[in-house]
Amino acid sequence: MPDHRTTHCHSRWLRLTLLLASFSAPLAQACTPPCDGSLDAWLPQSSLKTADQNVGDGSLLLPRDGKLLVVATCRVANSKSVCLSKFNIDGTLDPGFGSGGRVMLRDLPGALQGVLTVLVGDGNPFLPGASSPAALTPDGHIVIGATNDFHDWVVRLSSDGKTIDSIRQDPLASSILQAVLVQRDGKIVLLGNGYPGYADDITVARYQPDLSQADTSFGNGGASRLDAPAGASDTYLRAIIEAPDHSLVLAGQTVPAGATGSAGYVVKLTANGWYDGGFGTGGRWIDNYASGYIDLLANRQGEIWVAGTANTSPVDIRVLRMLPDASLLGARNYGANCSDGDDYASRIGIQPDGKILVTGHCDSAIGTETIELLRLTTTDNLDTSFGEFGYRLFIVVHSDSYKPNFADAIRVGGGGILLSWHSFLQDENPRWLSRFTLDEIFPGTFDN
What we know:
By secondary structure, this protein is an all-beta fold.
């Protein structure tokens, strides 16, 4: 398969000092060239520290008011919770949201005695990092998937973060809640994977916008149970999206019959929750050149882009581009070659001009964990006008006190590329929000 591993030295790696600083420019300001994907002057250090004690993955949401909403698992007073922070366009906390701009979910009235502990994904030891643990409804409500040691929960918050409108316990019965999707019509779709020992027990369910009841027009009484491919095992699905034709596309991994390792796995359902027989083989598609997929999107032309990990050594990021019937338009591997390390994708996003953004991290041979961001053209070539040869890398201080750093959300809004990431330090796990420049400024926001 085509390979875009590069061998050049990235001389412009930026060592970020983790300091909270005031904003020096509004988010939506015009870009002063060069606008090539470098960290811009949004902050003196181009990063906003959103919390001191985040302990897991999160979501970065863009409400219609143009502000930024970060949802993440956090640690407060030696216990975990789901925390939300909303920022104005200048980087200050929005005082109209929650209490001074922040919300701890378990402390809200109606939160069932504080049982809401972590975002979905963090609660599943097999599949950390749900691609969509939180989402926004068309009218601005916030839908969050949360879990603890005993139950899963779906919570619908008011747009100001001050009240819980509705809450539902164990919405998927025998499956572990993995991802949350709000459709364009406001209905809420939930993806769940099996419990330990029941990996292939995958469920997709759809609820009415207020969570009051299941949407019985979907699947069998509101839910579809997805069996693994014939003879396959250890099948998981991580991410789910709604395509332009209202079908649902899911991505993850499976171990095909007779195989010893996992492969990339893509599933397509009709708008009513049944396998789409016009996609791949009976609604399923397996990529034996990948070890698994973690995120996906559909552009306005209906093309499906899927990001994951390639079966290569060193490990590369792998990206698929396919038509709605699973016909391949492209399948490529990308490696930043950071000290002969392994590259892992974590999220995929899209610009208003159709260019594709992929973020992830590189686990280098010398132990440095590097956040990486690459941009592809609409034909899945590296966009060499971005960063260095299509890549933008930045590293956190390498020392014994630092552990892996992970990017867990990417969005395009306000004229920049917004990246949410966190680092595992010895004594704390701060979350950061960075902005990179686009090559040109687009009006409004495009959020997949």
